[in-house]
């Protein structure tokens, strides 16, 4: 059964963040609140953990997960960022957007699409940002939801019902009403909205 810890969503306690880091560094899977919904993640450089997340989510291997970075500088290590992309990201991150960009050589093969692209987020979530900064690596990011479950997953107890036996740690960061991120391709100079979700799309049109 997953361990539970309650972390302040506005001012994450460093002592509790270190428990999350310990779990991730040992190859663990963690559930956490983001600015859009509860998510499931692991260190993208731990291939064993990444494969476990595929199993937990029953996801086909040809469909890579997105991941979260801590800042724009952090994104530029893992993706090739053009001038338009840089300008838009500087204005609108952190925020509820998943940005599709060409991946850099640092990205593990398992996290790349066939086209060598990646989906990257910088969430407006102090807990996530603290974890990523301290870990020093991006965090795999997928929703803590199942296709065969119709109820909204709002808090850590809902997450436990679904994934309590499959993950190692659940962070209770209060209620988050699920609203998926807006997905935007920034591969070319003209942004393309791939999925409309939370977040204003007007600046990207």
UniProtKB/TrEMBL annotation:
GO terms for molecular function: double-stranded RNA binding. PROSITE patterns: YRDC. InterPro entries: DHBP_synth_RibB-like_a/b_dom (IPR017945), Sua5-like_dom (IPR006070), SUA5_domain (IPR052532). Residues 14-199 form the YrdC-like domain. PANTHER family: DHBP SYNTHASE RIBB-LIKE ALPHA/BETA DOMAIN-CONTAINING PROTEIN, THREONYLCARBAMOYL-AMP SYNTHASE. This is Translation factor SUA5. It comes from Candidatus Electrothrix aarhusensis.
